[in-house]
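Field reference: sequence -> structure
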Amino acid sequence: MTEATETPGAHGEEPSRRDFIFIATGGALAVGGAFILWPFVDQMNPAADTLALASTEVNIAELEEGQEITVIYRERPHFVRRRTAAEVEAAREVNVANLPDGDARNFNIAAGSPATDENRSAMTAVVSEGVEIEDAVRASLLVTSANCTHLGCVPTEGAGDYGAWFCPCHGSHYDTSGRIRRGPAPENLSVPVMTFTSASVLRLG
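Structure field:
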């Protein structure tokens, strides 16, 4: 009977050594590939300046009653107004059913919420834990986009039939709650996400 002969290295140390070399080579290629790809992957992350534009902080302590400032949030102008008690009262007396746009257009609350003044004001803003701020102050603050919802022009402050904002481009009138009341603009001025990070700072975004 002929005895089976084994080829040297067929079941000996040589295959194990060869497997080790294959594994080591594959691992090195994988690590090298990761180092090569990482700069491209990292480019997809938001840059520091982009992250900075994602939020804007407003010092509301410097705002007096009846005063308005314009800030830039996400590369667009936004009105920040501390309304007088008379302006708040006038806005609250409006019947939402009579508005051209009955939607609050407020990113702080559920979509489709009615456009009451409370649903438009900073009463809807998040208050950070431990922060105390008077309801009267929150109710007086109104933050909206500063671009007319018709074609994007910037409305003029303290003008128009409602003494709030008037867009000179095509004649849209907004009230003291930033709601469209007359003219071609189809929607109310939108309200961005807001958070009171302290009693004097309101963060947009």
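Note: The chain has four helices and eleven strands.
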